[in-house]
Amino acid sequence: MPLRHRLATRLAAAAILALSGPGALSGAALAEPRGVPSDATAIPMPPPEPPQRPPELATPAPVPAEAPRPPERPPELSVPTTSAPAIPASTDSAKAREPEPVKPPEGAEVPAPPPRPADLSAPALALTVAPVDDSACRRRLERLGARFEPLPAITNGQCGAAKPLRVTALADDLALTPPVTLVCSAAESLARWATEAQVAAERDLGQPLKGLTIGTSYECRGQNHDPDAKLSEHSFANGVDVMGFTFASRPAISVLAAPEGTPEATFLAAVRGRACDFFRTVLGPGSDAAHANHLHLDERQRNAGHRLCQ
Ligand SMILES: [Zn+2]
Fold first, then answer.
1. Who surrounds ion ligand 1 at CB < 5 A?
2. pLDDT in the model for residue 56
3. pTM of the predicted model, to two decimals?
4. Residue 214: which residues within 8 A CB-CB, separation 6 or more?
5. Does the pLDDT at position 195 exceed 70?
6. The pLDDT value given to residue 302
7. Where are the domains of the chain?
8. 158: exposed, middle or buried (C-beta count within 10 Å: 0-12, 13-18, 19+)?
9. Does pLDDT of 90 surpass 50?
C-alpha cells in the first residue's frame, strides 16, 4: 500500500474513534469475560464500611511532659570488673548469649565461701544472754574471798554473756594468771573448787597454792576449736581451762600425766576428782587429745542434770 493511502486509513480510524466517544471504548474494555453470567443483579456490592473508631480511641493518650525515667546506673557497675568475662560481641548463636561461669584469672585468689554459721541448734545463747539476777551469786563470790569486777555484756553473734565478771584472784590471794572472764555461776564454781585444791596442795605437797595458770576462759569458738562443732561453753563465759598450778617455794605443776605414785600425780588426781563436785563438765589428760595438757571445767546444762566427768 502506498504511504499516502496508509496514512489516510489511520486518520479515518482515529476519526471514528473520536466520534464514538469514550463509551464505545469503555464498553469494549468492560466487556465481561466469557463464562460469567451477565445478570445485572450479580454485580458485587462494595464491602461494608468498617465501624466508626470509638471516640475514646480517637485521640492518643496524653504523653506526660516528663516521662518517668529509670534510676541512674551506679558508676561502679559501669566499669567492668576484671573477673567478669567480656560479653561476646557476636550474638548470632544462642550459646554466645548464655551467661558463662565466672572464671577467676590464672593464679588469682579464689574468694573463700562465708564461714559456716555457728550451730543454730545451740540453745545456750538464750539461757546465757537473757538478763539474769546474779546479785546473790556475787555476794557468795565475795564471801569466798574472790576479787572480781563486772564487765559489760558480751554480744558476739551467737556467743556472749549478759553479765560476765573479770576475776583476778580467789581466796588466800590465789592469783588467776591471766584473769578469767566468767559468768558468776562459773566463777563461783571455780572459787569453791580452788578452796578444795588448796586443801589438796597442803595435804599432798606440803605447801599452799599461789596461783592458777589459765589457758582460756571466754572465747567464741566451737568445741575443741572445731568450727563445725557445737559452740563451746567458752563461748558463753561459762567454761575455763586450767593449765597448771604455781606455788611459793616449789616448781609449778602442769596439768600433764605425772609419773604414777609421785606427790604431783596424787595432787593432780585429787584436784581433778574434786572438780566433778563443782562443774558439770570436767575433761583432762586421757579424755581426748584436745585436753591432754589442761583441765577443761564448765557449767554446761545437760538433760536431767547429767554431768560429764572424765
Ligand atoms: Zn576448754
1. 241, 296
2. 53
3. 0.59
4. 176, 177, 178, 179, 180, 240, 241, 242, 243
5. yes
6. 87
7. 125-309
8. middle
9. no
pLDDT category at 236 given cuts 50, 70, 90 is very high
Indicate if the pLDDT at residue 278 is higher than 70.
yes
DSSP helix/strand/coil, 165: strand
CA of 233 to the centre of ligand 1 (A): 8
Cα 243 to ligand 1 centre (Å) = 10
Cα(239) to centroid(ligand 1), Å:
6
Q: Please give the Cα distance from 165 to 182 (Å, whole number).
A: 5
Q: Return the C-alpha cell found at 75.
A: 558508676
Ordered alpha helix ranges (H), 182-296: 184-204, 263-275
- Measure 251 CA to ligand 1 centroid, in angstroms: 24
Q: How far is the CA of 200 from the centre of ligand 1 (A)?
A: 23
CA 240 to ligand 1 centroid distance, Å? 6
Lowest-confidence region among 182-186, 197-201, 300-304? 300-304
Cell numbers for 100: 558463662
Q: How far is the CA of 62 from the centre of ligand 1 (A)?
A: 75
